[in-house]
Amino acid sequence: MFGLIGHLTNLEHAQGKAHELGYTEYGNQGLDFWCSAPPQIIDHVKITSLTGQVIEGKYIESCFLPEMLAQRRIKSAIRKVLNAMATAQKEGLNITALGGFSSVIFENYNLSQNKQVRNVELDFTRFTTGNTHTAYIICRQLEICGPQLGIDLAQATVAVCGATGDIGSAVCRWLDRKTNVQDLLLIARNRDRLNELQSELGRGKIMDLEEALPLADIVVWVASMPRGVDINGIPLKKPCLLIDGGYPKNLDRMVAQEGVHFLKGGLVEHEIEMDFRFMSWADMSVAGQPLFACFAEAMLLEFEQWHTNFSWGRNHITLEKMEQIGAASLKHGFRPLLLQ
Ligand code: NDP
To answer: Which of 54, 240, 293, 306 counts the highest number of beta carbons within 10 A?
Structure first.
């Protein structure tokens, strides 16, 4: 059985969902309440692959909210992730994805040092960040949708916001070696890490967001920002493809410029039978029943019986692993979400 650890996008979203589920007393509570709320198993999922194989899993709501980071409630954020992981392990789940910010918190606060959660000793081989599949899906979205908009990838300038992150660096490696785009613009805050990435790639221009965006044919957004940014004042190329893979989204609203196309990044569509409701919670405003690629990774690992932390640590994602998980993704019936 697989597990999915998820969270809602903000306090308002959490309050709305609590009301919807009939927990009115929770729906009226502020951030303090969510800081003390324990993880909840809220869905049991049954999935049938294109191959006919059937697997089951559980969705665990960690009760983490991005406001906890924005308001420096770091201890609460850490507790949410560790408690959700302990819950997954107590349930005996073989492989569990740390969705959205869960893996960002795990890495940024060095939680591999916190193996003991009350009476549970965490076994990290039972968890995956899901970032290899996410990076693969974002690259495939770019490779399919760019040309659909008339963008010639061999001539294209691609800006990656969050380039030095786990997903961002994997995307850069793929775009450099597989897609072979003309120019890569690398955006993040920490200059040392940007320099390291640039030396690893042997190319790429380090730039600020404001400087990079007007030059880019395609922008990949994979920065771990608790709140989205507004780029409406920045002139963009026409056409320009914006692929937002952040959760919560990196862009706080649609860019209202003609010729600018927006795609939700790191999402998969599927032709497989799925009996679950948690994705309807994620506030996607996309038709159909798309799924986060990181969650799909846990399902793929369960289908393939690869019970291992396939994606783990920071900046270890190789092209070989992206290809491996990509092949499994196709085999079991997932495909990248495309422009609607
Ligand atoms: P990491 O923490 O590994 O990397 C985050 C990157 O963002 C770093 O390069 C960081 O560099 C950069 N960054 C953070 N804040 C800013 C900022 N204000 N401006 C510019 N750059 C910034 O994160 P991941 O790669 O694991 O995840 C990235 C995003 O993808 C997150 O939003 C996460 O929730 C989402 N995600 C989506 C999934 C899906 O299935 N669709 C799955 C997993 C994650 P620096 O600190 O130097 O600025």
So the answer is: 293
Beta strands 273-275; 240-244: pairing state: unpaired
Are the beta carbons of 133 and 293 closer than 8 angstroms? yes
The string of pLDDT tens digits covering residues 187-222 is: 999 999 999 999 999 999 999 999 999 999 999 999
* The pTM of the whole model exceeds 0.85: yes
Give the residue, by CA position, lying nearest to ligand 1 atom 48: 189
- Cβ(218)–Cβ(142) below 8 Å: yes
pLDDT at residue 283 is higher than 70:
no
**What values do phi and psi take at 57, rounded to 5?**
-155, 175
Q: Whose CA is nearest to atom 21 of ligand 1?
A: 188
189 lines ligand 1 (CB under 6 A): yes
Among 8-22, 88-102, 172-186, 233-247, the least confident range:
8-22
Ligand 1 centroid to residue 166 C-alpha, Å? 7
C-beta 130 within 6 A of ligand 1: yes
CA-190 nearest atom, ligand 1: 47
- Residue 170 confidence (pLDDT): 98
User: What pLDDT, on a 0 to 100 scale, did the predictor assign at position 75?
Assistant: 96
Decide whether any atom of ligand 1 lies within 6 Å of the 193 Cβ: yes
- The answer, yes or no, to whether any atom of ligand 1 lies below 6 A from the CB of 98, is no
- Does 169 contact ligand 1 (Cβ within 6 A)? no
CA distances from 144 to 141, 227, 246, 269, 282 (A): 5, 28, 19, 14, 25
User: In order of start, what are the domains of the chain with their CATH numbers?
Assistant: 139-266 (3.40.50.720)
> Taking 90 as the threshold, does the pLDDT of residue 248 lie above it?
no
Question: Which stretches within the chain are classed as H helix?
Answer: 11-20, 24-27, 31-36, 67-70, 74-90, 101-108, 131-148, 166-174, 191-201, 209-212, 293-303, 319-332
Q: Cα of 96 to ligand 1 centre, how many Å?
A: 20
The β-bridge relationship of strands 120-121 and 127-128 is unpaired
Mean pLDDT throughout 90-95?
A: 97
The number of the ligand 1 atom at minimal distance from the alpha carbon of 138 is 41
